[in-house]
């Protein structure tokens, strides 16, 4: 700001006849003023339109969350929704772009590849955020234990046992240990696991 004020002070001082010989010629002053006005206009326009520089790796519609879950970035470039909220019948983005026909018209083919996970059974698919969530969303556990799923081992809130009955694949929530219901084939969730 001080530098800009100094330039303006110099330019206006140059306008007086007494200092004309010591300062830049009037033509040069006009060019400098024109460039400054252009810069101010561009910055003002960018602020008015709310334009922000893109983060490295940013692309429209893609967002990776802090948990490395792939999400859908709304047109406002601020709102990120989980993949499973796209084409779910409820508009989660301000302008409803997560429910547009071009995105939801022919599921899963119309969805971008980063939003879906293909199960071992080629006829089945799940949303990307349903992979490695502990639940048997594919029906054959390929979203939890399959090589393409590449899930991390069970976390501390889970009990590891394989195979698992019902809706889980290899990890059972510790909250369900000793609940009187068999979740592990070995019954370890009822006799060994501590909630």
From TrEMBL:
InterPro entries per the UniProt record, alphabetical: LDL_receptor-like_sf (IPR036055), LDLR (IPR050685), LDLRAD1_C (IPR057430), LDrepeatLR_classA_rpt (IPR002172)
Q: Which residues form the LDLRAD1-like C-terminal domain?
A: 152-191
Q: What's a single GO CC term here?
A: plasma membrane
The signal sequence is none
Where does the protein end up? Membrane
UniProt keyword Hydrolase, yes or no: no
Q: Cite a single GO BP annotation.
A: vesicle-mediated transport
Q: Which UniProt keywords apply?
A: Disulfide bond, Membrane, Repeat, Transmembrane, Transmembrane helix
How is the protein disposed in the membrane?
Answer: Single-pass membrane protein
Q: What is its main location?
A: membrane
Pfam families this protein is in? Ldl_recept_a (PF00057), LDLRAD1_C (PF25241)
Q: Which SMART domains match?
A: LDLa
Please give the start and end residues of each transmembrane region: 30-51
Concerning SUPFAM superfamilies, the annotation shows: LDL receptor-like module (SSF57424)
Q: What name has this protein been given in UniProt?
A: Low density lipoprotein receptor class A domain containing 1
> What is the organism field in this record?
Coturnix japonica (Japanese quail)
Q: Which gene encodes it?
A: LDLRAD1
